[in-house]
Known about the structure:
disordered C terminus, 18% strand, 2 domains, alpha+beta, elongated, binds S-adenosylmethionine, disordered N terminus, 513 residues, single chain, four-stranded mixed β-sheet, Beta-clip-like
Amino acid sequence: MESEPEHTHTDIDQTEEHCARQLLCLTEQRTREEPQYIHIDQNEFSHRRHKTQKEEDIAICECKYDEHDPESACGERCLNVLTSTECTPGYCPCGVYCKNQRFQKCEYAKTKLFRTEGRGWGLLANENIKAGQFIIEYCGEVISWKEAKQRSQAYEIQGLRDAFIISLNASESIDATEKGSLARFINHSCKPNCETRKWNVLGEIRVGIFAKQDILDGTELAYDYNFEWYGGAKVRCLCGAPSCSGFLGAKSRGFQEDTYLWEDDDDRYSVEKIPLYDSAEDEPSSRLFKTVNSPSSEFDVDGMMINVNVDSGHQLMSTALVVQSLDSVPMEGVVMEVKTEVSEERKLYSQENQPPFSRKNAMISRIRSNTACRNYHIGSGSMPNKRSKQYSNGKVKHGAQKQVDAKSFASLLASREAQEEILKYECMKNDAATHLESLYNEIRPAIEEHERDSQDSVATSVAEKWIEACCLKLKAEFDLYSSIVKSIACTPRRGQAEPYDGNNENEINYLQS
Ligand SMILES: C[S@@+](CC[C@H](N)C(=O)[O-])C[C@H]1O[C@@H](n2cnc3c(N)ncnc32)[C@H](O)[C@@H]1O
């Protein structure tokens, strides 16, 4: 027997309470606009039909109802509960006693809407809630990833500040902007008392808000949005947690890549200073010169610390290359003065590390994987090295590796051959970066979804493509930088009369001049 498909229409319960909710007009404190939403208790599917569960796919647990043991009827030990799957009515051995149909039966905790200070509406616990308890389903319109991207951009353009789209898996999202449950009012906290969990309900994945801890009646409910920021306004987080990351989406790739910028007056990369080395500690850029003498030197390239061994004859030994990823430093204690800040900074700063995704988009919240599911993580490896530095005005400056200006280097050299070599390698490096970027756009949903959710697997072919492109980019970068190091070490500068004569001493003098 196949289970009935879930309904696909707006589910308007005609009880007084539901009518009241449906007609709820919320005064938006910040903008004084009155956004409306339509209350639904079940997801709606606009781009596809609701899945119909096949009989062979129905998971049947082995629980046996025992009236003396309330946990017996699909409690924590139930095989379906352990795999975050709801029992299917008519198939569960516990029949009407089955306790594992909470999404289907809307077994929500009692909650209440309230106005927050500066964060619009929020949701309160209206009874004591136990750790692990299902609180409410995050309902909305289930839409494709593409549609979510478009809607998110459209909402941003319309000036809608509150973001209600959460990603469901690699290909779909839930949009609760126009239609949703009360879960749409739950705010973000960097130290949340709730969390999102995905459950398989009659063959569809649904998202629930669950208590992470015991929650007292009257406490605001909050979960970590795990927001992915794609551009547009940066919204200051007002959760008030000591470990607050400062902005919604501050931990996301897009936000971090956008935020780690150099300021214009930072002259460490002027050609004169031969900017091959940099660190957040502002170590002298002349470090490279010193390293020519040493058997092993290191410099920082796009978040990788590269050790280069130079033999006594100053020939670069590429076989001695060691590439180590630097650990990223979490953004703690970011202090800004305004609540919403349109990223005007971007116009002021030069930045070559463009995130591989349209900047027009706003934010989409991610759902973390369930504890009951496999939980592993593949990092993309493309995050820049992040270090932050607090200024007296309270702002934080984040260090990213600015790209070496190969053309400027080449123009310093007298040898045409050396110039051409550097430019050739730069071209190859740029091609590799462009290729990686376009590949990333292509496979972005799969890669990012897998990074955040172990329930969604990345196809081997996608992973292989990605790894290959990453390696190609790294190799191209290495080739470029090694050709620069080699040229600087072995080629006279323009305007210098004597070409390099193989005399070590002369060369070191020349480099230090
Ligand atoms: C899903 S809605 C939550 C309900 C929203 N407060 C309302 O009035 O409709 C998410 C939006 O609420 C606001 N918000 C949620 N948590 C916040 C926080 N910790 N700090 C600042 N704004 C927050 C942001 O505008 C965010 O885009």
